[in-house]
Amino acid sequence: MDANFEGARTPAVAFVTLGCAKNEADTARMRARLAEAGFALIDDPARADAVVVNTCSFIQSATEESIEAVFDAAGLPNVEAGAPLVVAGCMPARYGDELADELVEARAFLPCSREDDVAAVMAEALGVELPLPGACAVCGPSDNAAGGPQTALPYAYVKISDGCDRFCSYCTIPFIRGRYRSFPLERVRAEVAAHAVAGVREVVLIAQDTGRWGEDFEEPSTLAELVSTLAEEFPDVWLRVMYLQPEGVTDDYLEAVAAHGNVCPYFDIPLQHVDEGVLRAMNRTGSRAEFEELIERILSRVPDATLRTTLIAGFPGETEELFEELVDFVEEGLFDYVGVFPYSREEGTRAARLDGQVDEDEKAERAQRLRDAADAASAPRVAERVGREMDVLVEGAEEDGQLYGRAMCQAPEVDGVTYLAAGEPGEVVRVRIADTLLYEMEGE
Q: Environment class of residue 135 by beta-carbon count within 10 Å: exposed (0-12), middle (13-18) or buried (19+)?
């Protein structure tokens, strides 16, 4: 397009975001950078002067979905007419120059490490000079890091760190995101404050490894200190922590959850497997006995805790016997929610070179059997909530007008919803759970 917008109108940018909540948080931060530089932000890519596709490339299927989204954006009439298309996030970080040779439809590439430069990249792509007329002359680049409300939803994601040092043998994240680095308390607090001012009632703290927050500071801190500080400063905001590795469930963190009523007693702990040999091949620690002891320790400190985990089916070397052990663990019914993924053989990872690779059809079949076992084990746990009174954060209404929201035992986008008879979006209403259907609940 390379249009000259000076003296005419502000160039408008739209985002398409793929992948997990961490990418959504990255998009929010890039939107904030653009807004501070004077760009307009719109939701419809077909009406934008420039389009950013924030990609996911954690596994091959995510990469394929991201490529399809890039091609879809490239086919929009405005992009075909010259509106710049910028590919951001994990794909440029993972594939580098190789991606630029393949995706000639893109005007620019913005890997994770350069996302804070989005305004400069966008200005060059559009042929405009910064600052734009609408730029904020007094805000610094991190003063409005949250970027204000991005949707009408009453919850928001806030990243507390980036990168990972675990180097699980199947995972590409350390190569995409780099080494682990905690974000300063001041930055996290500023983002939570911005969301609170905008009316957000629940903030979900996320990272690749939330439990390690603060340990890399010159004066080390802990996740327990972070959560306690935020809970006390923002008493009207629910706080939820996701992606908490088993080692991150410390006694101090359990005490912080138990001591603050606005911290969701919700533990999202990715275990990935329970066989010690498979876990070692994954470059992870733990065992079935250790995980059962961990769950017992959580429930002894936080009796009303909600437990979620993720598991991988069909990892190299997983025999039918080892898989059945994983199924048996799930059938114990220890978890309210279980996310199941078939192992994805990712180029460049150590696991891709391991012996004992499982056939693709067998991996898919095992994953489905594990999902079925999880549903059968979790449904009774959810049904036990019938008759209990719970606070529910109203999120909105479906097309037929049916109101819905989430209780503290339901994380956004993954754990189902609670259907309601009354309430306004953003309100917290007290209900009695009258019925459940698998993961959905009905409040009255």
A: middle
Q: Which amino acid is at 9?
A: R
The structure tokens 């088993």 sit at 246
Residue owning tokens 């994954």: 282
The predicted-structure confidence for 403-432, as pLDDT tens digits, reads as follows 999 999 999 989 999 999 999 999 999 999
Residue 194 DSSP one-character state: H
Q: What percent of the chain is modeled with pLDDT above 70?
A: 94
State the CB neighbour count (10 A cutoff) for residue 407: 23
pLDDT digits (tens, 9 = 90+) for 330-375: 999 999 999 999 999 998 899 999 999 999 999 999 999 999 999 9
pTM attached to this predicted model:
0.85
**Cβ-contact 155, 107 below 8 angstroms:** no
Q: How far is CA 220 from CA 182, 184, 226, 437, in A?
A: 10, 11, 11, 45
Residue 285's closest CA among 315, 245, 313?
245
Widest CA span in the chain:
70
Distance CA 86, CA 105 (A): 9
**Mean pLDDT of the region 158-168:** 93
Contact 65, 179 (CB under 8 A): no
CB atoms within 10 A of CB 67: 19
Six token digits for residue 269: 């702990």
Report how far Cα 159 is from the mean position of its chain's Cα atoms.
9
Q: What is the DSSP letter of 320?
A: H
Q: Which residue has the tokens 């940018």?
A: 13
pLDDT tens-place string over residues 102-148: 888 899 999 988 888 999 999 999 999 988 876 654 444 443 444 44
Q: Are 399 and 405 in contact (CB under 8 A)?
A: no
Alpha-carbon distance values, 77 to 43, 49, 50, 82 (Å): 16, 11, 12, 9
- Structural tokens at position 9: 């109108």
Q: Rounded CA gap, 345 and 60, in Å? A: 8
Give the residue ranges of DSSP H helices in 178-245.
185-197, 223-233
What whole-number distance in Å separates Cα of residue 174 and Cα of residue 370? 28
Q: Say whether the peptide bond before residue 133 is cis (omega within 30 degrees of 0).
A: no
| 108-111: strand order across its sheet | 40-41, 12-17, 50-55, 85-89, 108-111
Q: For 350-377, what is the HEC assignment?
A: CHHHCCCCCCHHHHHHHHHHHHHHHHHH
Return the pLDDT at 152.
Answer: 61
Range list of β-strands (E), 81-219: 85-89, 108-111, 155-159, 161-162, 181-182, 202-206
